[in-house]
């Protein structure tokens, strides 16, 4: 059984008209899915409570988010990552962020209670939010709240993060916990926000060996990505043997993304999504929760996520996008949109490709070699 | 950044009259490699795990026994740092004299120890991502006011600079690696280019303009 979770209140998570984390992407996506699929009937999750949020965040941080939401910003707001920069405070921010947390938590509950095996949360994936700090457009860490729930249900969680940015918030929140294996593939922190996610960040204490990071060279493309992804993901499954997979499906490694420097196409995303779903079939009796994440090219992100919507249901994705939808949004956004779901326009050939591949493969080997002894595979 | 910011304290020490065996055991138990040797509360020498191993090795031309006294083997006098010294000065002394640590003394009192590892920590703190941040690299002419203009660019946009590392480049230029409080380094780079700066990272992507 496959479930999809969404509600229009997600659109209230809005940092303003010029901010890249725009709710218009979700509006575009939900309209697209309605027009592509007459059976599009997502479940509306409940809002997460304050207590749900407090499972992973400091009370002093939550209090500041609440105060700022109600127009009473405390003077030390910037120390909690909520200043004027990437993650500015806005009216109603606390409630908006709790809608997104509610969706991911509801998705995790459906899986832990056996109501569904595959659940797609059409939102969330705010992987940068930290224990007591907002960061990188992320206020509350919906993924960590979902993981916390799955752990309480007695499950071991494999967290897979394909967002182009390192999944630092989730990693630090479970850095010492051997019940969660975090696997993040991202553009190297040497070049991209947030700067962490090196191959030797492998966890601490009892959790040593349970944080996996594969930093990728700028301009890494489809072929190399599929190769190294398969290598580390298969080992993560075989060595860790999870009960459930949580996938953060950020779409910002796409070559059209304005914030980062990888050059994936929708074809790489299709193969990666398929292999994660197959991995769940082989190791977790199909149990998987998928959230969205970053993705700042409206055109590319919406197509990647529409693809995900069909793949998770085991359906063949359509080739063309509805004309009416496309023209409507082209007018609204004042920019051209692709007519087909998969990329027709491809990125140019990268001259350094062999060098990039060699570098990424070496790092995959380093990663597996250093974590292996902690997981004790037979 | 000062020595007192990166040094370790309190310091594990040993007395002149202790045996090499005792020194060895102490270093092994504490997981350390350097022991300042003290007499009447003053630092009179230093002994390292390497000193002990070489002194007691069969390969040594004049082998000592485990019962030999620390003062027979220690290095003396010892080079020390002041807690108010800048770390780069301590690093220079350690590099020039090829030594692995310096006891830190305030007047005559031993207040800490700084080792090569502490200097690596300092390097990480000076160059690394202590806070989530994006990286921007800009090449500036090595002339007065250029760095100020760069800093003003970020100030005008309310973007905080977490760290700034500069180093000389060929032809009268300086490379500046900034870690800034923003995920939108591409947009900032675009603005910098429009304002006439030479941005080395992030580069332009011709197909996504």
UniProtKB/TrEMBL annotation, chain A:
Domain Histone deacetylase, residue spans: 19-306
GO MF annotation list: histone deacetylase activity
Signal sequence annotation: none
Sorted UniProt keywords: Acetoin catabolism
Entries under Pfam families matching the protein: Hist_deacetyl (PF00850)
BP-aspect Gene Ontology terms: acetoin catabolic process; epigenetic regulation of gene expression
SUPFAM superfamilies membership: Arginase/deacetylase (SSF52768)
InterPro entries with a match to the protein in the record: AcuC, HDACs, His_deacetylse_dom, His_deacetylse_dom_sf, Ureohydrolase_dom_sf
Pathway participation: Ketone degradation; acetoin degradation
PANTHER family tied to this protein: HISTONE DEACETYLASE HDAC1 (PTHR10625:SF10), HISTONE DEACETYLASE HDAC1-RELATED (PTHR10625)
Homology family: Belongs to the histone deacetylase family.
Descriptive protein name: Acetoin utilization protein AcuC
Organism in which the protein naturally occurs: Oceanithermus profundus
Automatic annotation (TrEMBL), chain B:
Keywords associated with the record: CBS domain
Pfam families: ACT, CBS
Residues covered by the ACT domain: 135-207
Stretches assigned to the CBS domain: 7-62, 74-131
Taxonomy, superkingdom: Bacteria
PROSITE patterns listed in its UniProt record: ACT, CBS
Protein name: CBS domain-containing protein
InterPro entries: ACT-like_dom_sf, ACT_dom, CBS_dom, CBS_dom_sf, Diverse_CBS-Domain
Membrane-spanning ranges: none
């Amino acid at each position: 059984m496959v479930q999809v979770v969404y509600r229009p209140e997600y659109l209230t998570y809005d940092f303003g008209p010029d901010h890249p984390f725009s709710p218009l992407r979700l509006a575009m996506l939900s309209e697209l899915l309605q027009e592509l699929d007459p059976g599009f009937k997502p479940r509306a999750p409940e809002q997460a409570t304050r207590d749900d949020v407090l499972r992973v965040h400091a009370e002093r941080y939550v209090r500041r988010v609440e105060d700022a939401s109600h127009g009473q910003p405390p003077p030390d707001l910037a120390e909690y990552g909520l200043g004027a920069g990437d993650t500015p405070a806005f009216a109603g921010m606390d409630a908006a962020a709790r809608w997104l947390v509610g969706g991911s938590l509801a998705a995790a509950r459906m899986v832990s209670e056996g109501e569904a095996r595959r659940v797609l949360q059409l939102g969330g994936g705010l992987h940068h939010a930290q224990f007591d700090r907002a960061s990188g457009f992320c206020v509350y860490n919906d993924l960590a709240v979902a993981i916390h729930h799955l752990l309480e249900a007695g499950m071991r969680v494999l967290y897979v993060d394909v967002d182009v940015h390192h999944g630092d918030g989730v990693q630090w929140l479970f850095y010492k916990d051997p019940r969660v294996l975090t696997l993040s593939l991202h553009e190297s922190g040497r070049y991209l926000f947030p700067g962490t996610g090196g191959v030797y960040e492998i966890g601490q204490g009892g959790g040593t060996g349970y944080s996996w990071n594969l930093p990728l060279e700028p301009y890494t493309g489809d072929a190399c990505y599929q190769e190294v992804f398969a290598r580390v993901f298969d080992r993560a499954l075989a060595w860790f043997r999870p009960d459930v997979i949580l996938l953060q499906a950020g779409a910002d490694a796409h070559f059209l993304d304005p914030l980062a420097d990888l050059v994936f196409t929708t074809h790489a995303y299709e193969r990666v999504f398929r292999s994660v779903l197959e991995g769940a079939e082989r190791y977790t009796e199909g149990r998987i929760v998928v959230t969205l994440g970053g993705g700042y090219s409206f055109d590319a992100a919406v197509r990647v996520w529409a693809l995900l919507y069909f793949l998770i249901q085991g359906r063949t994705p359509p080739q063309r996008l509805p004309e009416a939808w496309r023209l409507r949004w082209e007018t609204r956004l004042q920019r051209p949109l692709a007519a087909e779901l998969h990329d027709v326009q491809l990125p140019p050939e990268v001259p350094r490709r062999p060098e990039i591949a060699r570098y990424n493969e070496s790092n995959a080997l380093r990663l597996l070699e250093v974590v292996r002894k902690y997981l004790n595979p037979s | 950044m000062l020595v007192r910011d990166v040094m370790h304290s309190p310091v594990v020490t040993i007395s002149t009259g202790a045996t090499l065996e005792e020194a060895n055991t102490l270093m092994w138990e504490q997981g350390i490699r350097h022991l300042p040797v003290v007499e009447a509360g003053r630092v009179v020498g230093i002994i390292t795990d390497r000193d002990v191993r070489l002194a007691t090795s069969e390969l040594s031309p004049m082998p000592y026994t485990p019962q030999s006294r620390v003062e027979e083997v220690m290095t003396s006098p010892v080079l020390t740092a002041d807690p108010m010294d800048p770390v780069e000065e301590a690093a220079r002394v350690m590099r020039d004299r090829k030594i692995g640590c310096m006891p830190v003394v305030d007047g005559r009192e031993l207040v800490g120890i700084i080792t090569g590892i502490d200097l690596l920590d300092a390097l990480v703190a000076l160059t690394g991502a202590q806070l989530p941040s994006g990286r921007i690299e800009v090449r500036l002419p090595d002339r007065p006011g250029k760095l100020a203009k760069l800093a003003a660019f970020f100030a005008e946009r309310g973007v905080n600079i977490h760290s700034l590392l500069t180093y000389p480049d060929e032809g009268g230029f300086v490379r500046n690696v900034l870690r800034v409080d923003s995920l939108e380094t591409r947009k900032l780079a675009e603005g910098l280019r429009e304002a006439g700066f030479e941005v080395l990272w992030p580069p332009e992507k011709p197909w996504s303009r």
